[in-house]
Design goal:
The complex is a heterodimer. Chain A is mainly β. Chain A contains no helices and 11 strands. In chain A, the strands form 2 sheets. In chain A, strands 2, 4, 5, 9, 10 and 11 form a 6-stranded mixed sheet that branches. In chain A, strands 1-3-8-7-6 form a 5-stranded antiparallel sheet, with no helix packed on it. Chain B is an all-beta fold. In chain B, 0% of the residues lie in helices and 50% in strands. In chain B, the strands form 2 sheets. In chain B, strands 2, 4, 5, 6, 9, 10 and 11 form a 7-stranded mixed sheet that branches. A 4-stranded antiparallel sheet of chain B has the order 1-3-8-7, with no helix packed on it. The chains are: A mainly beta, B mainly beta. Chains A and B meet through β5 and β10 of A and β10 of B.
Chain lengths: 116, 111
């Protein structure tokens, strides 16, 4: 089955700096890669996603890049602000044995702290 | 996200007691999921259902049960067989092959 690894587990940056979180996956057939942000005590919320036919996607200060050959994708946050402090989860839509689509497999999360 | 309603938000369970967490969605999503999150940890899949009257075990199904009698509803029962149920429980739904959206979660505490 699909295996998703996320690094780093914690990340501390100064306000205004950039933050990068990376995830690797194992199944080359996986084709959908969302990122979620979870604030303390709240539900995870989708912040950006990318499909395997696209290499990069941007939404204001957030971008995601996908390298299908190397099987990794990254979240980039520029001009970080204190309100970006949260736990970020990557996810991969895996494939079942036999080729049907499976469920989202989540990374273990990255706790981002943005210091004012 | 606003179309997924979980209740109750806070629940206390006594030893040996079964409790049921409710999850209702009005997004017309086919698939529904239950995740467990322990403090400071990631998301672990308990059960999922892709169509009515059908569901499959996730990674940590022992001690839990579900039903999917209606498309809109996917209740989770935490049975007395679940020895360490204190956690944050998240219900989610999706259209098949697309991203999932989460409810606001339910906090379960054993007293």
């Amino acid at each position: 089955g699909e295996n998703v690894e996320q690094h780093p587990s914690t990340l501390s940056v100064q306000e205004g700096d950039s933050a990068v979180i990376k995830c690797t996956y194992s199944d080359s057939a996986s084709n959908y890669f969302p990122w979620y942000k979870q604030e303390l005590g709240k539900r995870p919320q989708l912040i950006i996603d990318i499909r395997s036919n696209v290499g990069e996607k941007k939404d204001q200060r957030i971008a995601v890049t996908l390298n299908k050959t190397a099987k990794h994708f990254s979240l980039h946050i520029t001009e970080t602000q204190p309100e970006d402090s949260a736990v970020y989860f990557c996810a991969v839509l895996g494939m079942n044995y036999g080729g049907s689509q499976g469920n989202l497999i989540f990374g273990k999360g990255t706790k981002l702290s943005v210091k004012p | 996200d606003g179309g997924i309603t979980q209740s109750p938000k806070y629940l206390f369970r006594k030893e040996g007691q079964n409790v049921t967490l409710s999850c209702e969605q009005n997004l017309n999503h086919d698939a529904m999921y239950w995740y467990r999150q322990d403090p400071g940890q990631g998301l672990r899949l308990i059960y999922y259902s892709q169509i009515v009257n059908d569901f499959q075990k996730g990674d940590i199904a022992e001690g839990y049960s579900v039903s999917r009698e209606k498309k809109e509803s996917f209740p989770l029962t935490v049975t007395s067989a679940q020895k360490n149920p204190t956690a944050f429980y998240l219900c989610a739904s999706s259209t098949f092959g697309n991203t999932i959206y989460f409810g606001e979660g339910s906090w379960l505490t054993v007293v």
